[in-house]
UniProtKB/TrEMBL annotation:
<feature type="transmembrane region" description="Helical">
    <location>
        <begin position="12"/>
        <end position="33"/>
    </location>
</feature>
<dbReference type="GO" id="GO:0005783">
    <property type="term" value="C:endoplasmic reticulum"/>
</dbReference>
<dbReference type="InterPro" id="IPR050577">
    <property type="entry name" value="MAPR/NEUFC/NENF-like"/>
</dbReference>
<dbReference type="GO" id="GO:0020037">
    <property type="term" value="F:heme binding"/>
</dbReference>
<keyword id="KW-0812">Transmembrane</keyword>
<dbReference type="Pfam" id="PF00173">
    <property type="entry name" value="Cyt-b5"/>
</dbReference>
<dbReference type="InterPro" id="IPR001199">
    <property type="entry name" value="Cyt_B5-like_heme/steroid-bd"/>
</dbReference>
<keyword id="KW-0479">Metal-binding</keyword>
<dbReference type="GO" id="GO:0046872">
    <property type="term" value="F:metal ion binding"/>
</dbReference>
<keyword id="KW-0472">Membrane</keyword>
<protein>
    <recommendedName>
        <fullName>Cytochrome b5 heme-binding domain-containing protein</fullName>
    </recommendedName>
</protein>
<feature type="domain" description="Cytochrome b5 heme-binding">
    <location>
        <begin position="55"/>
        <end position="157"/>
    </location>
</feature>
<dbReference type="InterPro" id="IPR036400">
    <property type="entry name" value="Cyt_B5-like_heme/steroid_sf"/>
</dbReference>
<keyword id="KW-0349">Heme</keyword>
<keyword id="KW-0408">Iron</keyword>
<keyword id="KW-0256">Endoplasmic reticulum</keyword>
<keyword id="KW-1133">Transmembrane helix</keyword>
Length: 167
């Protein structure tokens, strides 16, 4: 028994008490979560660069969106990459006739019919001289819309032009 004026003996606390083990485990888990190896960040693959080039009506024809190819069309000698608008200009779209072609006359006439397209791809480009003021205004508004929305990827020249790509 202890004497009346002395304090009871201090209990020796063990460092391995259950609460300490739980706190130590929690600390180890948090440190691991903070410093564990992280998966490398992968950036989305960028599209291949587009090089400005010169097209003829026959070389432009292959860019019609078939088999996953890009969709290009020409307006007054400028070739636009309209691939982002594939739903409209690609296969099955309402303006698919213009894919890979000079769309100038059709846009000027507000007609998306195939008869608006130049049949002779080896001949001279359509000079559009027979268009009236309203048709030219239509064409200009379409061209402005394309310039706002799509990249110009080249220019269209006639077969046999000195700038035409060599076959």
């Amino acid at each position: 028994m202890s004497s009346p004026g002395t304090a009871p003996p201090a209990e020796v606390m063990s460092i391995a008490s259950p609460i300490n083990l739980i706190l130590l485990s929690l600390f180890v888990v948090l440190v691991y979560m903070q410093f564990r190896p992280k998966a490398p960040v992968t950036l989305p693959k960028s599209p291949p660069p587009i090089v400005f080039r010169t097209f003829t009506p026959t070389t432009l024809l292959e860019f019609n969106g078939v088999d996953g190819k890009p969709v290009y069309l020409a307006v007054r000698g400028r070739v636009f990459d309209v691939t982002p608008g594939r739903n409209f200009y690609g296969p099955g779209g309402p303006y698919e006739n213009f894919a890979g072609r000079d769309a100038s006359r059709g846009l000027a006439h507000q007609s998306f019919d195939e008869e608006m397209l130049t049949k002779d791809l080896k001949g001279p480009l359509d000079d559009l001289k027979d268009l009236d003021a309203e048709q030219m205004e239509n064409l200009q508004s379409w061209e402005e819309r394309f310039l706002e929305k799509y990249l110009v990827v080249g220019k269209l020249v006639a077969e046999g032009d000195p700038e035409a790509p060599k076959s």
